[in-house]
From TrEMBL:
CDD domains xrefs: TIM
Name of this protein: Triosephosphate isomerase
Assembly description: Homodimer.
Catalysed reaction equations from the record: D-glyceraldehyde 3-phosphate = dihydroxyacetone phosphate
Keywords linked to the UniProt accession: Cytoplasm, Gluconeogenesis, Glycolysis, Isomerase
Gene name per UniProt: tpiA
EC number: 5.3.1.1
Record's function text: Involved in the gluconeogenesis. Catalyzes stereospecifically the conversion of dihydroxyacetone phosphate (DHAP) to D-glyceraldehyde-3-phosphate (G3P).
GO molecular function: triose-phosphate isomerase activity
Record's subcellular location: Cytoplasm
Cited Pfam families: TIM (PF00121)
Pathway: Carbohydrate biosynthesis; gluconeogenesis; Carbohydrate degradation; glycolysis; D-glyceraldehyde 3-phosphate from glycerone phosphate: step 1/1
GO BP, sorted A to Z: gluconeogenesis; glyceraldehyde-3-phosphate biosynthetic process; glycerol catabolic process; glycolytic process
Recorded family membership: Belongs to the triosephosphate isomerase family.
Source lineage: Bacteria, Bacillati, Actinomycetota, Thermoleophilia, Solirubrobacterales
Length: 253
């Protein structure tokens, strides 16, 4: 049993208007109550962030953004910066989600700037990594993870490395209903942890590594029972307050 605190994050992706986001958080807050033994996070779309920060203030639920620019300010139409997120008391940010990488061309080089930038503004970064189905079939999973983790964390000051959260999300399991087996997930997550230990042994022991990809109430307990899996990054199942709360509950036992 590790002494790393479990971390359960719900990525709402491009779902929920402000009113719908409000409805979801109001349904979730009483279900999770004052849970203290799990870090619980929701990541609403940008427009709902302020409302959800206000609604969740003082509760057990932290509020994260789904993306952040690598610069503080400037001519970057459509982007949102770290200082803007920090100003409204957002607690952290998901970075390098595979949808950002695949649909919006985010590269490891860009993430190398974004991860330390988030920390600079007091935001906890969740760095997402993971292989495609073809890469897994070719036996390239570890090579892909090595590249993503080493590039993504390269410019993080060593003394702050343990604050970063890494989410292993095999792309073939995202939104597909296909879940990695607990053994597949454990192997990949342990590999990610070893890569962080390669930067700094102690930080690698402390860093939280999550699994993401069709995690739901029914399979959460088996995944979370694996020794290196410290939590989950949940998409679809986080849009239903009861399902998400059930995953939080699974992380407690
Ligand atoms: O950010 C969350 C992941 O992409 C997982 O999404 P999913 O639970 O809908 O498969």
């Amino acid at each position: 049993m590790s002494d790393r605190k479990p971390f359960i994050a719900g990525n709402w992706k491009m779902n929920n208007t402000i009113a719908e986001s409000e409805e979801l958080i109001q349904a979730l807050l009483p279900l999770v109550g004052a849970v203290e033994d799990v870090d619980i996070v929701v990541a609403p779309p940008f427009l709902a962030l302020q409302a959800i920060v206000d609604s969740a203030r003082g509760s057990a639920v932290g509020v994260y953004a789904q993306n952040m620019a690598e610069k503080d300010a400037g001519a970057c139409t459509g982007e949102v910066s770290g200082p803007m997120l920090a100003e409204i008391d957002v607690h952290g940010v998901i970075l390098g989600h595979s949808e950002r990488r695949q649909l919006f061309g985010e590269t490891d080089r860009l993430l190398q700037l974004k991860v330390p930038k988030a920390l600079e503004f007091g935001l906890i970064p969740i760095l997402c990594v993971g292989e495609t189905e073809e890469e897994r079939e070719r036996g390239d999973t570890e090579r892909k993870l090595r590249h993503q983790v080493q590039e993504g964390l390269e410019k993080v000051p060593l003394e702050r490395l343990h604050e970063v959260v890494v989410a292993y999300e095999p792309i073939w399991a995202i939104g597909t209903g296909l879940t990695a087996t607990p053994e597949q997930a454990q192997d990949a997550v342990a590999f990610v942890r070893a890569l962080v230990q390669g930067f700094d042994k102690e930080a690698g022991n402390r860093v939280r590594v999550l699994y993401g990809g069709s995690m739901k109430a029914e399979n959460a307990a088996d995944l979370l029972a694996q020794p290196d899996i410290d939590g989950g990054l949940i998409g679809g199942a986080s849009l239903d307050a009861e399902s998400f709360a059930a995953i939080v509950e699974a992380a407690r036992s």
